[in-house]
Amino acid sequence: MRCKIGFKIFIVSFLLGILILAGGVSAATNVSSCQTINASGVYVLNQSITDSFAIRCIDISSSNVTIDGAGFTIDGVDQDLFSYGVYVDNGPNPLNNITIRNLKVTNWYYGTYYDQVDVGLIENNTAVSNFLSGIWLETNTNSTLVVNNTAYGNRIGIWLDSFCSNNTIKGNNVSYNTRQGIILDSSSGNIIEDNIANNISTTFTQHGIYLSSSHNNSIRRNQASFNDEYGIYLTGSLNNTITNNTASSNTGYGIYLSTSNNNTIFDNLFNNTVNVGFGTSLANYWNTTLTSTTNIIGGSKVGGNFWAYPNGTGFSQTCTDRGDGICTNNLTFDSSNVDFLPLFNGSAAISGPVHNLNTGVNYSTIQTAINAATSGNTLSIDNGSYQGPFKVNKSLNLVGNGAPIIYGASCGYYVTADNVNISGLTFTNGSTPDAGVCFDGASYGNISNNTFYNNYIGIKLNGSSNYNLIEKNNASSNNAYGIFLYSSSYNTLTNNTANSNNNFGIYLYTSSNNNTLTANTANSNTQHGILLYTSSNNILTDNTASSNIQRGIYLQSSSSNTLTANTAWNNTQHGIALESSSNNTLTANTASSNTQNGIYLVFSSSNTFTDNTASSNTQRGIYLASSSSNNTLANNTASNNADGIYLLTSSNTLTGNTIYNSTNNGIHVRADYNNITENNITLYCNGIFLDAVSYTKVLDNNIQNSSTCGGGRGISDVAGGGSFSTFSGNTIKDNYYGVYLDSEDKTGINNNTLTNNTWGFYLTGSWDNTIYNNYLDNTNNAWDDGNNVWNLAKTKGTNIVGGPCLGGNYWSDYAGVDSGGDGLGDTLVPYNSSGNITSGGDNLPLVNATSYSACFTSSVSSGLGENKPSVDVLIVANSLDYPLATEMLSYLAGRGITYEVVGAGEFDADKKANSRLIIVFGGPDAPEGIGDVTREVLSDSEENAIRQSGSQAIYVKHNVWTDRYTYKQVVIVVAGSDRATTQAAGIKYNADVEQRLVT
Description:
The chain is 8% helix and 38% strand. The strands form 13 sheets. The protein has a 21-stranded mixed β-sheet. A hairpin with an 8-residue loop joins β30 and β31 (301-302). It is elongated, with a radius of gyration of 39 Å.
């Protein structure tokens, strides 16, 4: 049997070597997203894939494929049922030569899944927090090497299911899974060696290594300790060889056999309260032939097993040595299960507070025990006080028994080796600049269930200490930081407490990237709760940062981080703050009851804020301060603040936010080029307050009830100097002033509904604003002491009360008559709101009727005879720029030239073909499709000329959309480099346009 197994290993290794060499000479294909791979080759990830909703992220259906993760992560969403990080299967056709390496797979149902694969390699991967299994080998997967992987936080670390044979599972760390470390189910002829299946303090863990109906396997040199039930468990399994394993400190049994027989179990170390258990007891072999070679506890003979109890009274600890390291007496479990050659080690009975659970040797000091240990050993440290520092330069498990305290002169534990696990200890007096525990270039470790206080730093990860798990520690009352990561990435911090530290609770510093922080608490620190400095691509979820002297969660010069469902409340400055940080995503966070602002940005751009709550902050709910542009705020809630949202900078988008009960302003804007759309604002002094603002769009907002102060305003645009903004589609009611303009010019105000306000519109010292197609039903509908335009020229189009013509506004107190039936008032015009509009007024007030006649406008003779088009003059413009054309259109109307206005969407093929005279109002980059129309007309050089800053242009083209033999079509483009110059072009070229039309 051993010869056969050895030969099979040789064949596997040989074939894998060919595969690796073949991959080395192939050109690699970059992978940046989930995809199907159906061709052989080498595929290399060039970025992490996060929050993927794919069912199969990497789906391999071809042989001879290598996936190199290059240290990147593929991340699913919430461990969706039957989702796969890596899926290898080709239906009924087996695959071969499949390699997966250097990849982190997290948040899937299965991490990596092989089905019917011959000759595979799975190496150097990390599988964390997958619902069922980190690595799963399914039916008839054979001759596959699974080596040097880490799998934790899954239900099962590694699972071989159904007729998987001749596989080697070697050197993997499958600790901290919630069910089993390694399972073999109906799988035979495999080698399981040099793995760690220690699941210390993990709820519901059952077994380290579990064989069900699996035969002829070799289980050797594994660690299976600290499991909640059994270290090694066999049920219905025959002819397996179990040797040189350590099964210590398991809650149930070291090894448990049920209906399993003819297994050979020798040279193992069992150190449990109960070492062996049986279900249905069948015959097994508990020793081999006595052989002169080093045994598991360092003796010179291999025979049976070493049987210890944690209290030092085990059979091998108390038996009589016959002179060769073998106990004089047999150890009998029943007549069919006898260890005839149990090992003896007299030194195991020597008292000492530090215990090597693998060798049974006790030591008086921690450092002595570390020095004597070999990699993979577990050291149990009794209650007491120990003076550090201690240097850990090998892979060890360091476990507190009781409440031992480590006093550090510098670092309590200074760790330079990978795969070091530290739990159940208290660290104090770690001095500047060190910590209770220092990892220096140490990866794949675990720091859990420890207490750190009165150190300079509680936990310190330094110099590329990556892929570590820091869980359930209390790192509070330290002199600088609770937990500190310096240039360390891909670590997981979960359920830690970092309170009352003298600087920061949790600190990620300088290129600490791709870390995951979940459910940590960082309260009452003298500066910030959680700080990220020049650190990117981190994920912060469900953390709490409260009552910190400065900021709860603070990102400084950090980009592309994701913050979800965190809580930051009662901090002296801001709840969540971003400084010089871009491309971050904040979703469903709560920032409440902070002394300054809930969420604060300064010098931070291109961030996205969605579904956050910022309530009961003394100053602002959300505050975008200096040089914070191109941010998107959507569907957030800001309540019970002085200002709900405050914009001190340009080019941000606010949409769908709910803002209520603001002492001052719902939204306060002090910068140009912002978009404020579809927000719901109630209970305020000013709903939207624009402070000397230009080029801002206020669209489709619901603004209601200025009850928090006297003289409250729905939209307030004041302070002078502002122009070219647009207010459209808003519903504004229950205010003292609906829309209030003070010294503001050239604003387009249309399609708004103003009801139940004391004053609908109130304009003072404001000029050249265009106000049309609004619905007004207020105590006083308007006040205007300037010179503004209250209507368009009569134009076909459905107005705000359903009439067929656009013109002026609907006034609830207009008493005139629509004698023409077109929905426009013909008497008592211009309407001037009982004299409150001091200059002019509304010449075309809207009338609400049950039925209307058609909207007829006077026509211009085209002289086309039978080929006359259906429209004489067609104006093509968008809803935002159309108000800027008012002066030009009024000029044309005053000269008897009438027109129809359409948007780009209405400018269809029929209108293009049947319009003789067309004016396109807007440049090549105008919104709402107008830019597309303009580019159909102009050449590239003409487009670029318009784009030059300050340009104003008129271009005249012929027969753009018609055949010149049908009739002569004239197309005029009037445009500028921006909205202001476009309006100026309309005024400048009035006469030119008229001349072209007449000609």
